[in-house]
Amino acid sequence: MKKRKIKWFLLGGLLFLVIIVFAYSKQEKTYTIDLLNLEDITAVKIDDLTLEDNVTEYNDQNTIEELYHIFYNKTTKEESTTLNPEYPDILYIVTFEDHEGNSTSMYIYRREENYYIEQSYNGIYNSSQEEFECVEKYVD
């Protein structure tokens, strides 16, 4: 009788562990924009993608910081599975670079009166009209 209770207790414990592992594995992943450290960034480039060779570059720290804070610390549950955003109305690429030649890029765009930031193969993040217009004002 005692052996049977021990068997059921072990079987119940094993089932409990399986349920916990399954539930943990089903949690949605949180994506965060992959950015360089602000202290290391020496330039920010914005490409409006409407004309060839239409990239605007800024090297002053105030502009770098203003643009950096639009993208910093954003999280989402929505994964980006493409290289480029699909069907944007207006689209800009913002690239931060450091003195060693490392860079990180992301898109900021408007689609159907909604605003998004997308980092290819990372995540799609909600943005605001104010953030979008902040980037837009730096486009030549």
CATH topology: Immunoglobulin-like
CATH class: Mainly Beta
Give the count of helical stretches.
Answer: 3
Oligomeric state, counting identical vs distinct chains: single chain
Second-tier CATH architecture: Sandwich
Instruction: Calculate Rg over CA atoms.
Output: 23 Å
| Main β-sheet, spatial strand arrangement | 3-2-5-6-7-8
What's the shape? elongated
- Please report the distance between the alpha carbons of the first and last residues: 83 Å
Unreliable stretches: none
The structural class is: alpha+beta
- The count of strands amounts to 8
- Note the main sheet: 6 strands, antiparallel
What does this structure look like?
- Helices cover 31% and strands 31% of the residues.
- With 140 residues, the chain is α+β, with helices and mostly antiparallel strands.
- It has one domain (31-136): Immunoglobulin-like (Sandwich), CATH 2.60.40.
- A 6-stranded antiparallel sheet has the order 3-2-5-6-7-8.
Short description:
With about 140 residues, this protein is of the alpha+beta class. It is built from three helices and eight strands; from the N terminus they run αβββαβββββα.
Layout of helices and strands:
Blueprint: H1 2-25, E1 31-32, E2 41-47, E3 55-58, H2 61-71, E4 75-76, E5 90-98, E6 103-111, E7 114-119, E8 123-127, H3 129-136
Antiparallel strand pairs: 1-4, 2-3, 2-5, 5-6, 6-7, 7-8
Tags for this model:
Immunoglobulin-like; alpha+beta; elongated; 140 residues
